[in-house]
Each structure stands twice: as C-alpha cells, then as structure tokens.
Amino acid sequence: MSRVCTERLGETSGRRFAAMARRGFRLVRATGDARATGRCRLGGTALLEPGTPWPAHHGIPLSLHAVRDTDALAGWLGDELPVRPGLLNFFHPDPDLPYDAFRARDLSGPGAGRVLPADPARAVATTAPEPARSYPAVPLHAAGVSMLPDCWDVEDGDVEFDRDRHWGAASLVLDAMGDLDGNTAGSHRAFGWPDTSYTMRVTSRDADGPAVHLLQLAEEADLGWGRGDAGTLYFTIPVEAWRAGAFGKAVAQVQCC
Q1: Rounded to an integer, what distance in angstroms lies between the CA atom of residue 136 and that of residue 180?
Q2: How is the chain split into domains, by residue range?
Q3: What is the pTM of this model?
Q4: Is 16 helix (H, G, I), strand (E, B) or coil?
Q5: Cβ proximity of 243 and 83 under 8 Å
Q6: Distance CA 199, CA 194 (A)
Q7: CB atoms within 10 A of CB 10
Q8: Where would I find the beta strands (DSSP E) of 59-156?
C-alpha cells in the first residue's frame, strides 16, 4: 500500500496518505468457506443484558439492524480496539415507517440511531417490541482489510498537492488513486474508513482526529430495508467516547443520492 501510494502521489504525499490507512472489515453473508465471524449478523433478535431497556426515538421503538461481536474482531484490530465492549447492537428507525411517525424529518438527528453494548456471557436474545420491525437474521463473515480513506475524508492539510492542478486534496486523490481511493459504495463495512459516496464527510474530525467508524450498512433488498437511491446508513462515535466505551455518544447518519 505504501509503495503504491508513493508511486501515484509522490514521496511526501504518498507516505502521508498511506499512514492514514486503518484496519477494518468487509462484512459479507456467511456462506461455504466464509464462515460466520463469532455472533456477527444482520437483523435477528437483539443480544442485550437482562434489564436493558429497548431503545426508542420519540417514544417509538427502534429496529435492530445488526450485531457485531468485537471479541471475534479483536485479533485484527489490535490497538485500534482500546476497549472490549463484547457485543454491539445497532438500532435505527425502520425505514418503512413514515418519517412523521418520529416527529422528525431528519433520521440522522440525535437519538435516531443507538449502539448498545452487551457482555457476551450475560446477553440474552431480546425480541423487538411493536411497532419495531424484526428483520431476518443473516450471519456475517468479517474479512479483515486495510482501508484507505475515501477522497472526501481527506483534508487539504493531509497531503501536499499542486494547487495549480488541483482544487483540493480530494481532487488529487480522485485523480491519482483511481480504484484505490477507499470507495466502498454498496457494501457493508465495519471500522476502517466508510464510503462517503461523494456527498459529505462521515468521520468528522475533532482535536483527536477523525471520528471512529463503527458500521456502514448498504441497502439490503432481501431484508426489506432501503433508504432512497443508493441509501447507506453509517454509525460513528467520537474518538474520546470510543476510548472510554461511552457508546451513548454514537450517532447515525443516512446518506443517499
């Protein structure tokens, strides 16, 4: 990766861009040799500790979209997993319910998405209350990959570029990196960098760096969820909250063309 980046971007910018690589996962349906990774899956029942309230937005129960087993992912993530939250349950409003049912037009607003951790030894299968929708359970295989940022997650100060040729760092990456610019549109991803589909930055930055990308969920026609044209659901968390295991600060964003 470092060699390719320096060949395409030059010595200085190439090293800087390659240094932005993160460890992440491709999430695909478990089939044949691609066995399920721990308890990772789409849909199904939530895996919550006894007594954990089911999350709601404006009083309406959210739908479980995915479960991630971080213990099964820890070997590849290494130091990028500063806490061991065990199981992570990802909730979001059912996209088939009318938006006005939530008294909110923006399903990326505060509280629209929730991430609830659970101790695997204590977690129990918990069925969604009505009117939350229960999606079919689909076991997932998590394949470890090194991920470069999408061009829209690169800021002008990250790399050097010829300002007479490029209007910004994104232009340089688009022009030079081609199929290696980190675009992962139309697929499920965990950690690493998200695809931002040429619309807006997902992993907004603070003093500690880009927010941590927890999960990217693309459209799933078989499961009956979609969010507009090429709609994608992202869950992120501020760096400091990630280090502290404060998953109540995780946020969800929906992007579509």
Answers
A1: 33
A2: 22-147+184-255
A3: 0.88
A4: helix
A5: yes
A6: 12
A7: 18
A8: 60-61, 63-69, 87-92, 114-118, 124-126, 138-147
DSSP state of 43: S
Superfamily, domain 22-147+184-255:
YwqG-like (2.30.320.10)
Place of tokens 């688009």: 174
Residue 95, sorted as left (phi over 0), alpha (psi -120 to 50) or beta, turns out to be alpha
First to last CA, the chain: 30
- Contact of 224 with 255, CB cutoff 8 Å: no
Residue 102 to residue 126: CA distance in whole angstroms: 23
Token readout for 115 is: 């991430």
pLDDT in tens, 22-75: 999 999 999 988 899 999 999 999 999 999 999 998 888 999 999 999 999 999
- The residue count of the chain comes to 257
Share of the chain residues as helix, strand and coil, in percent rounded to the nearest 5: 25, 30, 45
